[in-house]
Task: structure prediction
Amino acid sequence: DTGVSQDPRHKITKRGQNVTFRCDPISEHNRLYWYRQTLGQGPEFLTYFQNEAQLEKSRLLSDRFSAERPKGSFSTLEIQRTEQGDSAMYLCASSRGVGATEEQYFGPGTRLTVT
Amino acid sequence: RKEVEQDPGPFNVPEGATVAFNCTYSNSASQSFFWYRQDCRKEPKLLMSVYSSGNEDGRFTAQLNRASQYISLLIRDSKLSDSATYLCVVEMDSSYKLIFGSGTRLLVRP
Result:
Protein backbone atom coordinates (compact mmCIF):
# COMPACT_ATOMS: atom_id res chain seq x y z
CA ASP A 1 0.00 0.00 0.00
CA THR A 2 1.59 3.27 -1.11
CA GLY A 3 -0.93 5.62 0.50
CA VAL A 4 -0.57 7.77 3.61
CA SER A 5 -0.31 5.66 6.74
CA GLN A 6 -0.92 6.61 10.35
CA ASP A 7 -0.13 4.87 13.57
CA PRO A 8 -1.79 4.03 15.85
CA ARG A 9 -5.28 3.87 14.38
CA HIS A 10 -6.88 4.13 17.81
CA LYS A 11 -5.59 5.50 21.09
CA ILE A 12 -7.36 5.60 24.43
CA THR A 13 -5.62 7.57 27.12
CA LYS A 14 -6.36 9.08 30.48
CA ARG A 15 -6.57 12.81 30.96
CA GLY A 16 -3.19 14.30 31.70
CA GLN A 17 -1.17 11.70 29.80
CA ASN A 18 1.00 12.48 26.78
CA VAL A 19 0.35 10.84 23.42
CA THR A 20 2.29 10.76 20.16
CA PHE A 21 0.98 9.93 16.72
CA ARG A 22 2.97 9.08 13.62
CA CYS A 23 2.24 9.81 9.97
CA ASP A 24 4.09 8.37 6.98
CA PRO A 25 3.26 10.34 3.84
CA ILE A 26 3.26 9.07 0.29
CA SER A 27 6.85 8.60 -0.79
CA GLU A 28 8.39 11.74 -2.31
CA HIS A 29 5.54 13.98 -1.20
CA ASN A 30 7.11 17.19 0.08
CA ARG A 31 4.14 18.65 1.90
CA LEU A 32 2.57 17.09 4.96
CA TYR A 33 -0.50 18.37 6.80
CA TRP A 34 -2.22 17.62 10.09
CA TYR A 35 -5.95 18.12 10.58
CA ARG A 36 -8.34 17.36 13.42
CA GLN A 37 -11.92 16.22 12.95
CA THR A 38 -14.66 15.96 15.54
CA LEU A 39 -18.02 14.27 15.10
CA GLY A 40 -20.31 16.08 12.71
CA GLN A 41 -17.65 18.55 11.62
CA GLY A 42 -15.27 18.78 8.73
CA PRO A 43 -11.53 18.46 9.29
CA GLU A 44 -9.83 21.53 10.79
CA PHE A 45 -6.34 22.51 9.74
CA LEU A 46 -3.67 22.26 12.45
CA THR A 47 -0.29 22.65 10.78
CA TYR A 48 1.73 21.84 7.68
CA PHE A 49 5.30 21.10 6.64
CA GLN A 50 7.21 21.76 3.46
CA ASN A 51 9.91 19.12 3.71
CA GLU A 52 11.20 19.47 7.30
CA ALA A 53 10.11 23.09 7.77
CA GLN A 54 6.91 23.76 9.69
CA LEU A 55 5.45 26.69 7.75
CA GLU A 56 2.10 27.35 9.36
CA LYS A 57 0.35 26.58 12.62
CA SER A 58 -3.31 27.09 13.40
CA ARG A 59 -4.51 28.92 16.50
CA LEU A 60 -6.07 25.54 17.35
CA LEU A 61 -2.59 24.22 18.03
CA SER A 62 -2.09 25.18 21.66
CA ASP A 63 1.23 24.99 23.48
CA ARG A 64 0.39 21.42 24.44
CA PHE A 65 0.62 20.36 20.80
CA SER A 66 3.88 19.95 18.93
CA ALA A 67 4.58 18.53 15.51
CA GLU A 68 7.86 17.55 13.92
CA ARG A 69 9.09 16.25 10.61
CA PRO A 70 12.78 15.85 11.34
CA LYS A 71 14.03 14.41 8.07
CA GLY A 72 11.32 15.61 5.77
CA SER A 73 9.74 12.18 5.61
CA PHE A 74 7.51 10.93 8.44
CA SER A 75 5.95 13.30 10.97
CA THR A 76 4.91 13.05 14.59
CA LEU A 77 2.22 14.94 16.45
CA GLU A 78 2.52 15.02 20.23
CA ILE A 79 -0.15 16.14 22.65
CA GLN A 80 0.99 16.79 26.19
CA ARG A 81 -1.27 16.72 29.23
CA THR A 82 -4.25 15.54 27.23
CA GLU A 83 -7.69 16.95 27.96
CA GLN A 84 -11.10 15.49 27.19
CA GLY A 85 -11.57 18.16 24.54
CA ASP A 86 -8.64 16.66 22.62
CA SER A 87 -10.76 13.62 21.78
CA ALA A 88 -11.05 13.63 18.00
CA MET A 89 -9.84 12.00 14.81
CA TYR A 90 -6.37 13.26 13.87
CA LEU A 91 -5.85 13.14 10.12
CA CYS A 92 -2.60 13.43 8.24
CA ALA A 93 -2.42 14.31 4.55
CA SER A 94 0.35 14.76 2.04
CA SER A 95 0.81 16.34 -1.37
CA ARG A 96 3.59 16.46 -3.91
CA GLY A 97 4.54 20.04 -3.10
CA VAL A 98 5.47 21.15 -6.60
CA GLY A 99 2.46 23.24 -7.55
CA ALA A 100 0.14 25.86 -6.18
CA THR A 101 -2.95 23.70 -6.03
CA GLU A 102 -2.60 19.99 -5.52
CA GLU A 103 -4.69 17.13 -4.28
CA GLN A 104 -4.07 16.30 -0.67
CA TYR A 105 -4.17 12.57 0.07
CA PHE A 106 -5.43 11.70 3.50
CA GLY A 107 -4.44 8.86 5.76
CA PRO A 108 -6.96 6.75 7.69
CA GLY A 109 -6.53 8.85 10.82
CA THR A 110 -5.78 8.22 14.47
CA ARG A 111 -8.86 8.25 16.67
CA LEU A 112 -8.00 9.63 20.11
CA THR A 113 -10.26 9.12 23.10
CA VAL A 114 -9.33 10.89 26.33
CA THR A 115 -11.11 9.49 29.37
CA ARG B 1 -19.65 33.02 10.95
CA LYS B 2 -18.04 29.86 9.61
CA GLU B 3 -15.63 30.29 6.71
CA VAL B 4 -17.36 27.57 4.70
CA GLU B 5 -21.03 26.82 5.26
CA GLN B 6 -23.06 23.87 4.09
CA ASP B 7 -26.51 22.47 4.77
CA PRO B 8 -25.81 19.41 6.95
CA GLY B 9 -28.74 17.44 5.54
CA PRO B 10 -29.33 14.57 5.49
CA PHE B 11 -30.63 14.48 1.97
CA ASN B 12 -32.61 11.27 1.62
CA VAL B 13 -33.26 10.48 -2.06
CA PRO B 14 -34.29 7.43 -4.11
CA GLU B 15 -31.94 5.76 -6.53
CA GLY B 16 -31.91 7.57 -9.85
CA ALA B 17 -32.74 10.96 -8.37
CA THR B 18 -30.85 14.16 -9.05
CA VAL B 19 -29.62 15.97 -5.98
CA ALA B 20 -27.83 19.29 -5.55
CA PHE B 21 -25.68 20.56 -2.70
CA ASN B 22 -24.75 24.17 -2.11
CA CYS B 23 -21.97 25.79 -0.20
CA THR B 24 -20.99 29.38 0.56
CA TYR B 25 -17.61 30.71 1.60
CA SER B 26 -16.80 33.96 3.36
CA ASN B 27 -13.28 34.86 2.24
CA SER B 28 -13.21 36.49 -1.17
CA ALA B 29 -9.45 35.83 -1.35
CA SER B 30 -10.10 32.10 -1.63
CA GLN B 31 -8.18 30.66 -4.56
CA SER B 32 -9.14 27.05 -5.09
CA PHE B 33 -12.24 25.03 -4.49
CA PHE B 34 -12.98 21.35 -4.14
CA TRP B 35 -15.56 18.76 -3.23
CA TYR B 36 -14.34 15.90 -1.07
CA ARG B 37 -16.29 12.78 -0.25
CA GLN B 38 -16.08 11.09 3.15
CA ASP B 39 -17.58 7.69 3.88
CA CYS B 40 -18.55 6.84 7.44
CA ARG B 41 -15.46 6.51 9.66
CA LYS B 42 -13.14 6.85 6.67
CA GLU B 43 -10.78 9.56 5.49
CA PRO B 44 -11.86 12.30 3.06
CA LYS B 45 -11.08 11.71 -0.60
CA LEU B 46 -11.05 14.24 -3.40
CA LEU B 47 -14.17 13.99 -5.54
CA MET B 48 -13.44 16.86 -7.88
CA SER B 49 -11.93 20.30 -8.15
CA VAL B 50 -14.24 23.21 -8.96
CA TYR B 51 -13.39 25.68 -11.69
CA SER B 52 -14.92 29.03 -12.55
CA SER B 53 -16.08 27.68 -15.88
CA GLY B 54 -17.81 24.76 -14.21
CA ASN B 55 -16.74 21.19 -14.68
CA GLU B 56 -18.30 17.79 -15.09
CA ASP B 57 -17.09 14.31 -14.25
CA GLY B 58 -19.56 11.64 -15.27
CA ARG B 59 -22.68 12.07 -13.16
CA PHE B 60 -21.13 14.86 -11.12
CA THR B 61 -21.16 18.56 -12.04
CA ALA B 62 -19.54 21.28 -9.97
CA GLN B 63 -19.97 25.01 -10.40
CA LEU B 64 -18.42 28.10 -8.84
CA ASN B 65 -19.85 31.59 -8.63
CA ARG B 66 -17.09 33.88 -7.37
CA ALA B 67 -19.31 36.97 -7.29
CA SER B 68 -21.76 35.26 -4.93
CA GLN B 69 -19.06 33.18 -3.21
CA TYR B 70 -21.10 30.09 -3.87
CA ILE B 71 -20.17 26.54 -4.89
CA SER B 72 -22.51 23.77 -5.97
CA LEU B 73 -22.39 20.05 -6.64
CA LEU B 74 -25.00 18.26 -8.74
CA ILE B 75 -25.28 14.48 -8.72
CA ARG B 76 -27.41 12.92 -11.45
CA ASP B 77 -28.82 9.39 -11.48
CA SER B 78 -27.92 8.77 -7.82
CA LYS B 79 -26.54 5.35 -6.91
CA LEU B 80 -26.66 3.60 -3.55
CA SER B 81 -22.88 3.91 -3.50
CA ASP B 82 -23.17 7.71 -3.56
CA SER B 83 -24.33 7.61 0.07
CA ALA B 84 -21.66 9.55 1.96
CA THR B 85 -20.87 12.97 3.39
CA TYR B 86 -19.86 15.59 0.83
CA LEU B 87 -17.41 18.20 2.08
CA CYS B 88 -17.11 21.60 0.46
CA VAL B 89 -13.49 22.72 0.65
CA VAL B 90 -11.76 26.03 0.02
CA GLU B 91 -8.06 26.79 -0.21
CA MET B 92 -7.11 30.26 0.97
CA ASP B 93 -4.59 32.45 -0.82
CA SER B 94 -2.59 29.51 -2.15
CA SER B 95 -1.64 28.82 1.44
CA TYR B 96 -2.08 25.09 0.88
CA LYS B 97 -4.26 24.70 3.95
CA LEU B 98 -7.75 23.48 3.24
CA ILE B 99 -10.80 24.93 4.95
CA PHE B 100 -13.59 22.37 5.15
CA GLY B 101 -17.30 22.85 5.56
CA SER B 102 -19.10 20.62 8.03
CA GLY B 103 -20.35 18.40 5.24
CA THR B 104 -23.68 17.47 3.72
CA ARG B 105 -24.86 13.95 4.33
CA LEU B 106 -26.47 12.09 1.43
CA LEU B 107 -28.49 8.91 1.83
CA VAL B 108 -29.58 7.15 -1.36
CA ARG B 109 -32.30 4.58 -0.76
CA PRO B 110 -33.32 1.66 -3.02
